[in-house]
Amino acid sequence: MAQFITLEDAKRLPFWRRPVALLFLMALAMPIAFNTWAALLNNFVIEVADFDGADIGLLHTVREIPGFLAVGVIAIIIFVREQVLGLVALILLGVATMLTAWFPTMGGILTLTMLSSIGFHYYETVNQSLQLQWLKIEDAPRMLGWLMAAGSFATLIAYLAIMTLWETLNLSYNIVYMVGGGITVLIVIFAIVAYPQFEAPTPQIKKMVLRKRYWLYYALQFMSGARRQIFMVFAGFMMVERFGFEVHEITTLYLINLIANMIFAPLMGRAVGFFGERRALGFEYIGLILVFLSYGGVYFMGWGVIVAAVLYVLDHMFFALALALKTYFQKIASPGDIAPTAAVAFTINHIAAVFLPVLLGFLWLVSPAAVFFLAAGMAFVSFCLAMLIPRHPAPGNETIFAGRLPQAAE
Q: Which of 288, 284, 281 is nearest to 390 (CA)?
């Protein structure tokens, strides 16, 4: 029988059974399955299923559909606790990853991609809600940085195993997918057994919430989703298609990203707490503008593989500052809005993700450089929006136009 305990009472539990420990455990579990899938994906679909740019765009469009439907989480949490939903979603992600290589056809790959994506996106929606409910506002930037570092550490172990054992043991795609997904499933089963159900102090509204005062947060989420797709879909695909990276080589590149994240994510969390969300996001977007313009130069100017690899690492590092978007919302939100708004924001984040990859897949066939120049434009729009965040966001002071002292607002 499930044990229910408030966050205040949870402070009396051993540290490893407290809410923050569960957040760290989930932060370790998710990346093992998801990034094992992602590390092999480009090579798997090119070598096994003979995908081209249009095919990979279609796959990622299918992958993002559950993100667009993340608002459905609001209906589910009427009947299922957020903590339970998050763990069940992780199991679905793990099982779908395990079965990926069993169906090496367009239909099979798309079906399992859809299932794993449901698990990933519903977990991410619930996880963001739990983080903002369970972490104190003053601790959130620092702890979110450490949670990102923990996820990078888990992925680092997975990538090291792939990089060192892929050729040595002549591993197959099936073996790696089975092991990566299976580890995630085992971790989640342990979490279900070992942890009580934690009760946040403020009950969450279990219906769709759209508030005018959150408009800037919604806009930033939309642009973040559009911009992220270009990196997720085409940056890694470029390394394989243009420069012929093999599995162990692309994994080495991911490995460098992870080490950088482990080192810099906690520092970035502290930077957000010190400099504020506006400056942190502004710095991120300026960096992304330069990176995406340089990506275009790789094709337009014929720059080589070293430049492309350095840009890939810098790109990944800048995205770590996106935690500032979470803390911005935590500061302006009414406590009961966190869960429904997390679901709505996740859907907004994925509006562009549903159609952008497949459309840009066709543009990629004509001009890969144009795809990255478009991304630079998106990063510029994001920068302009970020400049509307006040130095001290709070309810009633959501944008520089608010013109009011911080106070509760609906």
A: 281
Contact of 383 with 376, CB cutoff 8 Å: no
Residues whose CB falls within 8 Å of the CB of residue 379, separated by 6 or more in sequence, listed in order: 227, 285, 288, 289, 292
Alpha-carbon gap, residue 321 to 325, rounded angstroms: 8
105 sits in the region (left: phi over 0; alpha: psi -120 to 50; else beta) called beta
List the CATH code of the domain at 9-386: 1.20.1250.20
- In sequence order, which residues have a C-beta less than 8 Å from that of residue 134 and are 6 or more positions away? 7, 19, 20, 23, 198, 200
pLDDT score for 405: 44
The C-alpha angle with vertex 180 and arms to 67 and 41, in degrees rounded to 5, equals 60
Q: Give the angle 233-235-239 at the CA atoms, nearest 5°.
A: 120
The HSE-up count of residue 134 (CA atoms within 13 Å, CB side) is 26
pLDDT at 408 over 60: no
At residue 123, the pLDDT reads 92
- Phi-psi label, residue 302: left if phi above 0, alpha if psi -120 to 50, beta otherwise: left
Chain centre to alpha carbon of residue 326 = 12
Q: In the beta sheet, which residues pair with residue 5?
A: 198
> Rounded to a whole number, what is the distance in angstroms from the first to the last CA of the chain?
38
Query: Dihedral of CA 4/6/12/14: which sign?
Result: positive
Contact 210, 344 (CB under 8 A): yes
What is the per-residue DSSP string for 140-184?
HHHHHHHHHHHHHHHHHHHHHHHHHHTTTTT--HHHHHHHHHHHH
Q: What integer is the mean pLDDT of 297-304?
A: 63
Helix axis angle, 82-98 to 19-47, nearest 10° = 30
Segment 157-215, tens digit of pLDDT: 887 887 777 777 777 888 888 988 999 999 999 999 989 888 877 777 777 777 888 89
